[in-house]
């Protein structure tokens, strides 16, 4: 489970040697625009983030570096949380946007998860980042609802769309935690669903 190979990619655990690559990805303001953290400012922050990733994995979460096969240098990240949301998240370096890399990595993770006892995954995207929603749709996730959240630590109001993929075939299951937690929630009539 700590190594997945696809046509173009290797998904693997992060190591200390990935500090500079991780910094290059997460210090970019454009890459970071829709992430739940501020851009990294120093290599030391990247080193601390690697410790965060290590803890994430120790807590039974999945957190992979997305690397191209030809050089094994991280160009992005993909993770699935260990909590009851089984939240799928991803980010990719700007020079690799619009090339299907996130979709390929996400599909590989979904295929791996189908061999586990995880019954479903969720993912959310800011309504101002519809391309992230297209990745969710491309891997078979279905839109369930939208909600407004005051996003910390960035401290601004975001409308998120919540998607879900039930890996065990229970198509009636809807993860309702965000619906129940946030007062403003609704179902959009999305034209592409």
Overview of this structure, please?
With 193 residues, this protein is an alpha+beta fold. Helix content is 28%, strand content 30%. It has helices at 19-26, 29-32, 43-58, 101-113, 130-138, 177-181; strands at residues 3-5, 9-13, 62-68, 74-80, 88-92, 120-126, 142-151, 156-166, 185-186. The strands form two sheets. A five-stranded antiparallel beta sheet has the order 1-2-3-4-5, with helices on both faces. α1 packs across α3 (43-58). It is globular. The mean pLDDT is 95.
Structure characteristics:
single chain; 193 residues; alpha+beta; five-stranded antiparallel β-sheet; four-stranded antiparallel β-sheet; 28% helix; globular
Helical coverage, percent range = 25-40%
Helix and strand succession? Answer: EEHHHEEEHEHEEHE
Largest sheet: 5 strands, antiparallel
Q: What is the count of β-strands?
A: 9
N/C terminus separation: 32 Å
Would you identify the regions where 5 or more consecutive residues have pLDDT less than 50? none
Q: For the residues shown, what is the average pLDDT?
A: 95
Strand content: 25-35%
């Amino acid at each position: 489970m700590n190594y997945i190979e696809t046509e173009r990619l290797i998904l693997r655990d992060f190591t200390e040697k990935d500090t500079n690559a991780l910094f290059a990805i997460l210090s970019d303001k454009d890459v970071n625009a829709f992430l739940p953290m501020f851009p990294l400012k120093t290599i030391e922050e990247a080193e601390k983030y690697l410790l965060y990733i290590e803890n994430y994995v120790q807590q039974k979460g999945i957190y992979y570096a997305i690397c191209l096969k030809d050089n094994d240098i991280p160009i992005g990240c993909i993770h699935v949380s260990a909590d009851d949301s089984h939240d799928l998240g991803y980010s990719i370096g700007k020079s690799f946007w619009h090339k299907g890399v996130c979709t390929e990595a996400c599909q590989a993770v979904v295929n791996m998860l189908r061999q586990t006892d995880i019954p479903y995954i969720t993912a959310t995207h800011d309504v101002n980042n519809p391309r992230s929603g297209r990745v969710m749709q491309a891997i078979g996730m279905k839109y369930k609802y939208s909600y407004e959240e005051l996003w910390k630590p960035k401290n601004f109001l975001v409308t998120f769309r919540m998607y879900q993929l039930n890996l065990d075939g229970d198509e009636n299951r809807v993860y309702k935690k965000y619906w129940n937690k946030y007062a403003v929630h609704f179902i959009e009539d999305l034209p592409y669903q």
